[in-house]
Amino acid sequence: MTPARQFPTVAIVGRPNVGKSALFNRIVGRRVAIVHEEAGVTRDRVSARAHWRGKPFEIVDTGGIAFADEPLAAATQRQAEIAIEMATALILVVDATTGIAPLDLEIAGKLRASGKPVFLAINKVDHDGRMSLVPEFAQLGFAQSFPISAVHGRGVNALLEAVTADFPAGGAAEPERPTRIAIVGRPNVGKSSLVNCLLQSERTIVSEIPGTTRDAIDVPFTIAGKPYLLVDTAGLRHRSKIRTSVDQFGLMRAERSIRECDIAVLVLDARDGVTTQDKKIGGQIAAANRACVILVNKWDLAAEQEK
């Protein structure tokens, strides 16, 4: 498998809850990433194709960098680091309403050390009354800074004009529509491990903690020149077990991924057999009239369990 990457890549980075996903959605022009007031909603890299004045590029939303030792925080940080390594340009998002936090300084130093062009987006400047908050961020030391409001679109055009200034116009011809393959199943059956195994890269966060994947993650790749799109989804649990609105959004995205895919890969856990929830997910695939491949995972653990 070859990852499909033909265009310049822009990674949006920053500490948790500064508005990275809101900016990502604003640039893409539709709601792709989940936006919520809860910090740490985005964990994996979420990417999409975007255009600005005839210049195509890939935009990547990353989880908030926290430099913490907690396993999921560390994995989220690793995903952000991979995005930084792959990026052509970086957008550092900060929150004008909270001022400079120690994490902002740490992240700014890390981005500066990357040697990549960095564009500072001072977010949540929703009106002129907040312009007085902007000068403080000069101490981060970036030549190009832009007061913006990701929610309202204020200042985003100027930011994009600067970010894409050196990007080529036109680029490659629009590729053919890829075959969409949705990886679906209950929480913690190994969907993200499967995606990483197929791609032979650390594309999504893998953890024993159920619910690690919260959004639908699109991963384009090619085999023998034919384009495909792998979609790693949040675990489909019974609606009675949904505790937060973030989990609800993730469930809705996963269900939509089933409706929009060409092929659904239903992942089961060999240790559990076929559960009631597995049957319900299979029913959703059948109701959507989608082709289905059933993959039974964790045979090695099931064999150990029988000993």
- Order of strands in the sheet with the most strands? 1-9-10-8-11-12
Within CATH, the superfamily of the largest domain carries the name P-loop containing nucleotide triphosphate hydrolases
Backbone shape: elongated
Query: Which CATH-level-2 architecture of the largest domain?
Result: 3-Layer(aba) Sandwich
Please indicate the count of domains. 2
Helical proportion, percent range: 25-40%
What percent of residues are in strands?
Answer: 15-25%
CATH class categorisation of the largest domain: Alpha Beta
**Distance between the amino and carboxyl termini:** 36 Å
* Low-pLDDT sequence parts: 32-44, 67-73, 203-215
Average pLDDT reading: 79
Can you write the helix and strand succession as a string?
Answer: EEHEEHEHEEHEHEEHEHEH
Q: Topology of this structure?
A:
Blueprint: E1 2-3, E2 9-13, H1 20-28, E3 46-52, E4 55-61, H2 71-86, E5 89-95, H3 102-114, E6 118-123, E7 145-147, H4 156-163, E8 179-185, H5 191-199, E9 217-223, E10 226-232, H6 245-260, E11 263-269, H7 276-287, E12 291-297, H8 299-306
Short description, anyone?
The protein has 307 residues and is of the alpha/beta class. It is built from 8 helices and 12 strands.
